[in-house]
Write a structure and sequence with these properties.
The protein has an eight-stranded mixed β-sheet, with helices on both faces. It is α/β, with parallel strands linked by helices. It is built from twelve helices and eight strands. Helix 10 runs parallel beside helix 11.
Length: 301
């Protein structure tokens, strides 16, 4: 099965939720008027896209249909998809790892799938011919290091770890040293699952960032925030909280298979202007791909 088919299957509940409701509106379709657009806007809001983002999409759709004299049902759907795609492509979605070494710092709250995401990203990089070192800097959670080691082994990546409870920044320092010794291409740093109201953990994150910037000042750096796709609109507040503590360069979406809340992705990107860089729709090591806005929108509408 190709990744687009996996994506379609994984986003099936989201598609059923959004597409089913949209089809209901179109089943009563007579002409594109305000009643029709209001019904469409209500569906987008109910599909976790968010009020502000839904309003923007419908306003753009309204202007476009007037300008292009769109009246056909399929043309309306195509225009709707294109307006969603524009939002998702508003910023650069490519990974910037051009220096050797480069750094990926992975952050997010507990339970969102950071460990599995790191394993999957490391595997992708290895498939692209890059050598990877992983820093096990989540020293707070029991078994976090063991879990990460299993994924690192699957991906063929080197891992730097220390005993539980040590200063995470010191693990990152050791990992940077190892990365340079091995002349590796990419260092991926795992971090503790921080809740945005836990100040000491946010302070620890700032400390890790300072160590990285001091020891690798000229390296390309990606800061990826992992978001659980099942949390819907609640993810927006998580993104805003982490933005205050880190220069987030991209989002990693997990657990989109089995949820009807995939539409929230559009609202998250629109409200924060941070691109989605990876998307995961499964448990296997190759069930993660670089995000493609067109494929995503096609999979849900």
């Amino acid at each position: 099965m190709g990744f687009f088919d996996k994506l379609k299957n994984g986003l099936n509940k989201t598609k059923e939720s959004i597409n089913g409701k949209i089809n209901d509106v179109f089943s009563n379709f007579r002409k594109v008027d305000e009643d029709f657009l209001e019904d469409l806007e209500e569906i987008l809001i109910m599909s976790d896209i968010g009020v502000e983002t839904s309003t923007k999409i419908i306003q753009n759709l309204r202007e476009r249909m007037k300008k292009e004299k769109i009246e056909d049902e399929e043309e309306v759907k195509t225009a709707l998809r294109e307006e969603m795609k524009k939002i998702l492509e508003v910023t650069d979605i490519s990974l910037h790892l051009d220096t050797k070494p480069s750094v990926i710092l992975v952050i997010g709250v507990n339970g969102v799938g950071k460990t599995t995401s790191i394993g999957k990203i490391a595997n992708r990089l290895a498939r692209d011919g890059k050598s990877v070192v992983i820093a096990a800097a989540d020293t707070f959670r029991a078994a976090a290091v063991e879990q990460l080691e299993i994924w690192a082994n699957r991906a063929g990546a080197n891992m730097v770890k220390r005993e539980e409870g040590v200063d995470p920044a010191s693990v990152v320092y050791d990992a940077m040293k190892k990365t340079k010794e091995l002349n590796a291409d990419v260092l991926i740093v795992d971090t503790a699952g921080r809740l945005h109201n836990k100040k000491y953990l946010m302070d620890e994150l700032n400390k890790i960032q300072k160590v990285i910037n001091k020891e690798m000042p000229d390296s390309d750096k990606e800061v990826l925030l992992v978001i659980d796709g099942t949390t819907g609109q609640n993810a927006i507040s998580q993104v805003k909280a982490f933005k205050q503590e880190a220069d987030i360069t991209g989002l990693v979406l997990t657990k989109l298979d089995g949820t009807a809340k995939g539409g929230a992705v559009i609202g998250i990107v629109e409200e924060n202007k941070i691109p989605v860089k990876f998307i995961g729709v499964g448990e296997q090591i190759d069930d993660m791909e670089v995000f493609n806005a067109e494929d995503f929108v096609k999979a849900i509408i």
